[in-house]
Amino acid sequence: MEFTPGDAGDAAWSRWLAQHEGQADTEAFVRSFYPPLTRLESALHDLLTRRWLDTATGHALDGIGSIVGLTREIPDGTPLPFFGFEGQPLTTGFSQARFRQRGEPYAVTYVMTDAEYRRMLRVKIALNNGRGTVEEIVAACREVFGAPRVIVQDWGNATARVYLGRLISNLDPLHSHIASMIQPRAAGVRFWIGQMHDSRVFGFAGQPFGPRGFGAGVLSRAL
After folding, report:
1. In degrees, to the nearest 5, what angle opens at C-alpha 25 toward C-alphas 22 and 29?
2. What does the buried/exposed string (b/e) look like for 101-118 if buried means 16 or more CB atoms within 10 Å of the residue's CB?
3. How far apart are CA 80 and CA 90, in angstroms?
4. Looking at residue 25, what is its pLDDT?
5. d(CA 51, CA 60)
6. Is beta strand 190-195 parallel, antiparallel or unpaired with respect to 107-111?
7. Highest mean pLDDT of the ranges 55-64, 67-76, 146-155
8. pLDDT tens profile 69-124
């Protein structure tokens, strides 16, 4: 039975005998004792229902993160725009950004919203209790990156290829932390991580993933 907090004064007065109905002074006297209990009941209800992963917000969500070992801050998660040329990462052209000064950082810390943080915590909890199986890695990638298609391939001795079925922009705060979010892995195992279009992967006949040809497919790429 689900408990729903209510007005403690209403609950108390409803239990008095019917002969007191209409006695305003008696009712006021009885109700005067219960406002603190109403607030306490509401606080206890919040403690019971608003500290879980699906309902927690703000500091309550941070508390869950401190338990499972994940903060909502992503170091270097927000790149700063600087002037640059084609081929240089995260740069813009003339009249769009200033020159970067020597020693100036390329990016600043990104702080996840509650919705983003909740999604990451859900994955972190699963991986904390996981064994690095293919199924766990696939589930983690789908949850964190919203990839509808994830493929894990054996690629020789202690090596596997992980293909994310979504092209992730290098402006995405999670871009540089993808490898850490598909942990844990078995000791000594190395992952090569790539990304591809979820349904139009460029390739040739005989290759996996249902390849598309020139003008139709999108090249897969390493991160």
Report:
1. 120
2. eeeeeeeeebebeeebbb
3. 8
4. 81
5. 6
6. unpaired
7. 55-64
8. 888 888 776 677 777 777 666 677 777 777 777 877 777 778 888 988 888 888 88
Residues 159-182 pLDDT 10s: 888 888 777 776 676 666 666 666
Farthest-apart Cα atoms in the chain, separation: 89
Q: Which residues have C-beta within 8 Å of that of residue 60, sequence separation ≥ 6? A: 50, 51
Cβ-contact 83, 94 below 8 angstroms = yes
Question: Tokens representing 98?
Answer: 């200033």
Contacts of 193 (CB under 8 A, 6+ apart): 161, 162, 164, 178, 179, 182, 222, 223
pLDDT at 65: 92
- Alpha helices, DSSP H only, in 86-198? 114-128, 134-145
